[in-house]
Amino acid sequence: MEGDIKKLPQFAVLQLSGCAGCEVSLLNASEWLDKFKLVYMPLVVSTHKVPDDVEVLLISGGVRNDEDAYNLQRAVRNVGKVVAVGTCAISGGVTNLGDRDEVREVFLSNASRLHLPRLLTKTHPVDDFVEVDMYLPGCPPTPELFMAALLEPEGFKASSIVCGECGRRKLTDMRPKHLTGFQQGEVLPDICLINQGYLCVGTSTRGGCRAPCTKAGHPCVGCRGPSNAFIEKESAVWLENIKRVFERMTDIPPQEIDEALRSPQLSMFLFQFSDYAGGNRRIRSKEKVL
Amino acid sequence: MTTLTFPLSRIEGHARVVIETEGGEVLAAQFQAVELRGFRSFVQGTPAEQMPVIVPRICGVCSTAHHVASVKALENLYGIVPPPLACDIREVLLLGQLIQNQATSLFIFTMPDRVNAESLFHMDESEATRERQFTIAQRALKVRKIGTDLITLAGGQFIHPVKAHIGGMTGGIKREAADGMLADLQEALPMACELFDEYWEMSQALRDRIGTWGDDEPTYYLASTEATKPRFNSNRLRVMGPEGSERATFLPSQFETYLEFEETDYSYAGCTSYRGEVMRANSLARINLTASMGTPRADEYLQRFTHTFGKPAHPILLFDLCRGIELVYAMERAIELLNEDMDYMDTDVAYTPRDGVGFGMVEAPRGPLIHKYVVEKGLIVDAQFIIPTVHNMLAIERALRVAGRRYISPAGINLELEKAVGRVVRAFDPCIACATQ
Question: ∠ CA(B60), CA(B66), CA(B70), 5° rounding?
Answer without folding.
Answer: 145
